[in-house]
Write a structure and sequence with these properties.
alpha+beta; two-stranded antiparallel sheet; single chain
């Protein structure tokens, strides 16, 4: 395990991972989905002296363990997901803090040893290049994402958040 300035990067990971996952519905909601959690973890790990970059992929909501009546509310089954890569010992290591430990039994909860890849929260359809991932993340700010969701809400995000909260252990 790598330690800098008294704080282990794995402690930062566990802290951010255990923030209860939820999709922001309104522009004033805190972003606690993959986007917000990876932004927060990126800052924490960079502050420990590591090089960190975003990676974006596409996935299908229907590939996750979400009830059909909630999936039926979505406009598009294909969505984007963001996770991090951390440069450790000259290797880019995948780090995904998306699902909080309260969702164990619903999703695979990632653990991180600070030196090898975590599991990804989703099964990627396509993983975008480092350059494309950086472009996507720089062009979509958290307030823009929340506003877009508010403008296009079909009830999916609200129903998913409610179901997750109800089933969180």
């Amino acid at each position: 395990m790598i330690e800098f300035q008294g704080m282990k990067i794995t402690d930062h990971f566990r802290h951010v991972r255990n923030i209860p996952y939820s999709i922001p519905i309104n522009s004033d909601d805190e972003d606690r989905c993959c986007n917000g959690k990876t932004r927060q973890l990126k800052t924490l790990i960079e502050n420990e002296g590591f090089e960190v970059r975003y990676r974006v992929c596409s996935f299908r909501w229907s590939s996750l363990n979400i009830p059909e009546h909630i999936l039926d509310l979505q406009k598009d089954d294909i969505a984007s997901h963001v996770y991090l890569e951390v440069l450790i010992n000259r290797n880019w290591i995948k780090v995904d803090p998306t699902w909080d430990s309260g969702l164990m039994g619903i999703f695979q909860i990632s653990e991180w040893d600070g030196k090898s890849d975590t599991a990804l929260a989703v099964d990627p359809i396509e993983i975008y290049s480092v350059e494309k991932s950086a472009e996507i993340m720089s062009s979509c700010q958290p307030e823009d994402i929340a506003q877009h969701r508010a403008d296009s809400d079909t009830g999916f995000e609200t129903a998913l958040n409610t179901w997750l909260e109800k089933n969180r252990g």
